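Kindly inspect both lines:
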Amino acid sequence: MYDFHENKSRYFEIQRWVTAQYIIPFLELPAQAALRGLGVGCGEAGVLKAFVDQGHTGMGIELSSTRVEMANSFLSDDVKQGKVEIVNANIYDIDPASDPKFQFDLIVLKDVIEHIPDQARFMAKLKQFLKPGGKVFFAYPPWWMPFGGHQQICKSKLLSKLPWFHLLPMGLYVAFLRMMGEGEPTIKELREIKETGIISEQIHAIIRNLNYQVIKETFWLINPIYVRKFNFKPLKAKVAIPYLRNIYCTAHYISFGLK
């Protein structure tokens, strides 16, 4: 397993760095305007930290109480100063209409949408959190890409570097993981990822059906986060062929808002 998945301090810094260097420039946020942002599934809140460092304020919503504790620790000064709030909750349990603090200019999900069941229901819920003119941003690995199965979490060094085997039918996939010595907790997590993995065409279909409109998108042959993870140079895809792009691109950045 790669150490940045165990070293939460390092992972926080990687997320902060890639957000500052690539995500915020991609979003082309208005100059001289302090926005209120929401990070859903914010984890240790490295993404939020990058926005706060640039003068914005916001909130992180996270299901894991352990990760909420870490986020509050990493952002302790910002929390004390009222720049950010970390909430341990499920967004389906929140009624944004009842409290203006749940209204945002920007909603960000980095490496999160591919873990969420029933993405259409979830993306419909996000509408309730958006201010007029607000937008949503997703960064995620398309399911069909070489490591879209998140096999980097495998204990086996071979499996952690083996591309595309997550595309096996579920029964064969689970049997292969067990044969290679993966423990049941890891297998459970990988099964859940397989059940929720998503490709760009599915994202676009949901956007159309929910009356959102795409603002901007970029497909990456080499994900910008790989700079800090593997010392690879980021590379955009000059040609993004529908469906096939999910096989050869390692990341998809997309922003969208209400029509």
In short: The two ends are 43 Å apart (CA to CA).
